[in-house]
Design brief:
By secondary structure, this protein is α+β, with helices and mostly antiparallel strands. It is built from ten helices and ten strands. Strands 1-4-5 form a three-stranded antiparallel beta sheet, covered by helices on one side. The longest helix is centred in the middle third of the chain and has 15 residues.
């Protein structure tokens, strides 16, 4: 019996490497063919022998067809020319957004020898992205651009509550808020998806769930390209559908407020109404 024989983990890894290179080795891409190839010249392997075999197989570069979905994930994570990409065997934080990637639901990328990172599949990164993740600066820059573009539409000090046609088709409208976060330095602006019910007075985003990066990018794109008429319509859709002020998100408590979409306090502070720009209400 061999001292320090090849481990089951080494064998499984070697089999997978042979399957990846089956077309170069002239064998069928199956585990049976791979095992027969491995043991054709040597009936038993020590752990050291197995390491040499694995290194030899890794030296054989496998050109894989481009996967556009995978390439987008790599771009979001800032990963360039990884050595290998495989389904992630372990749950871990995503390099792109910082949120958890469940086992076998994303990618594990070998970026340098023995250094692995985990990323979501394209469209599955979660917003708001965590500080320090690759997408953090990008999404914050785009949201700041939205605030700059939209600043003339509402008086200084307001926040932006609006509704746009649902991208999922599950509802007629999806509801959003571009608000300042009490949890970020300098009360930085954040984009949130709003659900029904009153927002907490202490934390305006307390009941707003996170959204995918695909959805966040879609909403940011809409904000940057919407006309004043489209934006005013979106504000009134928010107010009339949820019965909440499109400036602060709080519940509208009288008929006049519900008619104009603004509460009395916001109306006194900020003046004009979105409905004045419309002929729909």
């Amino acid at each position: 019996m061999l001292e320090n024989p090849m481990s089951e983990k080494q064998l499984n890894f070697a089999v997978n490497l042979v399957i990846e290179r089956a077309h170069l080795l002239g064998i069928d891409p199956t585990s049976t063919s791979a095992s027969e190839f491995i043991f054709a010249k040597q009936a038993e392997y020590t752990s050291a022998d197995a390491s040499k075999l694995i290194n030899m197989l890794l030296a054989v570069v496998v050109e894989k067809p481009a996967d556009p979905i995978q390439e987008l994930s790599l771009k979001n994570a800032g990963v360039v020319n990884p050595l290998r990409i495989i389904p992630n065997k372990f749950g871990n934080g995503c390099l792109a957004c910082g949120h958890y990637v469940e086992t076998k639901s994303g990618y594990a990328c070998e970026v340098t020898a023995k250094k692995w990172v985990t990323i979501h599949k394209d469209g599955e990164c979660v917003e708001p992205v965590k500080d320090g993740s690759h997408l953090h600066n990008r999404i914050e820059q785009r949201i700041s651009e939205c605030v700059s573009v939209m600043s003339h539409r509402i008086s200084e000090g307001c926040e932006y509550y609006f509704a746009i046609p649902s991208h999922t088709g599950n509802n007629d409208l999806d509801f959003y808020a571009l608000v300042t976060s009490h949890r970020k330095a300098g009360n930085a602006w954040v984009l949130k998806r709003v659900v029904g019910g009153a927002l907490s007075d202490n934390d305006l985003t307390a009941n707003s769930p996170v959204m995918s990066m695909v959805e966040a990018e879609r909403v940011v794109d809409w904000m940057l390209t919407s006309t004043e008429h489209e934006f005013a319509t979106a504000q009134m859709w928010f107010a009339t559908s949820l019965g909440r002020c499109y400036c602060c998100g709080r519940t509208l408590t009288d008929d006049h407020s519900r008619e104009v979409g603004m509460g009395s306090v916001c109306e006194a502070k900020y003046g004009g109404h979105a409905r004045d720009q419309l002929d729909l209400f």
